[in-house]
UniProtKB/TrEMBL annotation:
Residues 98-150 are annotated as: Disordered. The lineage of its organism: Bacteria, Bacillati, Actinomycetota, Actinomycetes, Kitasatosporales. Residues 136-150 have a biased composition (Basic and acidic residues). Residues 102-124 have a biased composition (Acidic residues). This is Uncharacterized protein.
Length: 511
């Protein structure tokens, strides 16, 4: 998640069941976050063990899909409300009801607009989501790749993942009583669900038109395993950089990591694909340095703030990603832009290019700039140095150590397949002069799969023809059952007690 963290310490393989606070000790964000992660892991593991890989409650199972043929080749899907669990993660497809506004009437009951025509009644809000207006997918009818497949049959799947949300994207998270000069407080993690089509060709079925429910289910399981399997690995280390003796800092002379502060480096894949196609970006602040956008005018961007200090601000030469809610949810990377000019009094920056037309134009999607800390060198790269940028991001180079800064280096394993958004977190500490990364007995760094994004999939429907769908969901019933009837002796004892009570009541004198 893109948040201002010290580090993430949750490790399921260590089997910790709780975080225990000790008196007189420093309280860290990592401890509180680990406790939350432990409880979430336990709850979701239990739900998955009881429910299975996916399923919904029989009385309110959500995500029932109905195909709706549209005019001008714009087909649609009706997504009925209810709850559904995928790998223990709760997804709710219930569409919220709109609020009720106060009637604008004068105190005596008159409307105050007697001479004017009554305003038209608002349209009845839809009761369900559809493929085109589902809350976290942001499908665009103008993009052919977003349309439902013309060739049938095809499968409708539910994709589930999580992402972080800060006050830059949801201003309601900020406590205004703290004042604008104070930073925001805690971030949030949001469950994102998306109903998306999977073409039958991707499932590799021999006879898609005549496939049974079981055959479609098995083919989808194989497809989902391949789609979620990690395709790349990375290792990190801290090596003593060249000219380290000339760097004036307070770190001990033999330190490998020479940074002046503790950092949480984030290495994130920008554009996916093979090593020849993939690029990456990195941040020393876990990608948490963001700047909400108030207005966009060509290449000039007016910001709500330029940062609280010189460590968390924007400067000429910084590379930024123009982000909004739809951009984050779609996961389709666009070129990073360079800050060319900073107007401090006007809280404006001029970028090296105009942002893409589909990003940042709708204020309700909360656009903001995210700063990344890699730079493009103007000198010819020396041996071992990072390559020049491609669309603002660094090229992936496999099989060699690539320096980031201050002695921190990363290594991409050969033959990787990279997905946009996959990332690794690397804590760097001045106290040890190194990075926290697992090593083997010989103290060599171990290769690790990405820490995220972790996507989860479940099949919903198999659309075979016009107005014909095969429901692929699973349902489960409640565990509670009626209490068993008492045995014969217990029933006899109850009858005897009732008879004695009646006898006493009959024998009691009348008042």
């Amino acid at each position: 998640m893109h948040a201002d963290l010290s580090r993430l310490t949750f490790r399921p393989d260590r089997r910790y069941s709780a975080v225990v606070a000790q008196q007189g000790r420093v309280q860290l964000d990592a401890d509180a976050n680990e406790q939350t992660a432990i409880q979430l892991h336990q709850a979701r593991t239990l739900a998955a063990d009881l429910i299975g890989q996916h399923g919904g409650p029989s009385g309110d199972a959500g995500f029932h899909i109905r195909f709706k043929g549209g005019s001008r080749d714009l087909d649609d899907l009706i997504i009925e409300g209810g709850r559904y669990y995928v790998d223990g993660i709760l997804c709710d497809a219930t569409r919220p009801l709109p609020g009720v506004a106060v009637d604008d009437e004068t105190p005596d009951g008159a409307s105050g607009q007697e001479d004017e025509a009554d305003p038209p009644e608002p349209d009845e809000p839809p009761a369900t989501w559809t493929y085109w207006d589902q809350p976290d997918a942001y499908r665009d009818p103008e993009r052919p790749g977003d349309r439902l497949p013309e060739q049938r049959p095809f499968l409708v799947a539910l994709k589930v993942w999580e992402r972080s949300v800060t006050a830059a994207e949801d201003p309601a998270l900020r406590e205004v009583a703290l004042g604008s000069a104070m930073p925001d407080t805690a971030a949030r993690v949001k469950v994102v669900w998306q109903v998306l089509p999977v073409e039958s060709a991707a499932l590799e079925l021999e006879n898609p038109g005549g496939a049974s429910k079981e055959q479609v289910g098995k083919a989808f399981e194989a497809w989902a395993r391949q789609a979620t399997a990690p395709g790349s690995r990375l290792a990190a280390r801290a090596e003593r950089p060249e000219h380290a003796d000339q760097d004036p800092c307070l770190v001990r002379p033999d330190a490998r990591y020479r940074g002046p502060e503790n950092q949480l480096y984030r290495v994130e894949v920008h554009e996916g694909g093979s090593a020849k196609e993939a690029t990456f970006k990195w941040s020393r602040e876990n990608g948490s340095v963001v700047f909400p956008v108030d207005e966009l005018d060509g290449t000039w961007v007016e910001l709500a703030s330029l940062g609280s200090d010189d460590k968390l601000d924007l400067g000429v030469g910084d590379l930024v990603e123009f982000v909004d809610t739809a951009y984050t949810s779609r996961g389709e990377p666009l070129p990073l832009l360079r800050v060319e000019e900073v107007d401090l009094p006007g809280r404006r920056v001029r970028l090296s290019g105009e942002p893409e037309p589909g990003v940042g134009r709708r204020p309700e999607l909360r656009p903001f700039l995210r700063r990344w800390d890699h730079r493009e060198t103007t000198r010819r790269p020396r041996k071992g140095a990072a390559a020049r940028l491609r669309r603002g991001a660094l090229k992936v180079e496999e099989g060699r150590w690539l320096p980031l800064e201050d002695g921190v280096e990363v290594y991409f394993a050969p033959d990787g397949v990279y997905r946009s958004g996959d990332h690794w977190l690397i804590p760097a500490r001045t106290a040890t002069g190194g990075v926290e990364w697992p090593v083997n007995a010989a103290r060599k760094p171990l290769l690790r799969a990405p820490a995220g994004i972790q996507a989860h999939y479940a099949p919903l429907a198999w659309v075979t023809a016009e107005q014909a769908e095969l429901d692929l969901r699973m349902v489960f019933g409640p565990l509670a059952v009626p209490a068993p009837a008492a045995d014969a002796s217990a029933l006899a004892a109850e009858a005897e007690a009732a008879a004695e009570t009646r006898a006493r009541e009959d024998a009691a004198p009348e008042a």
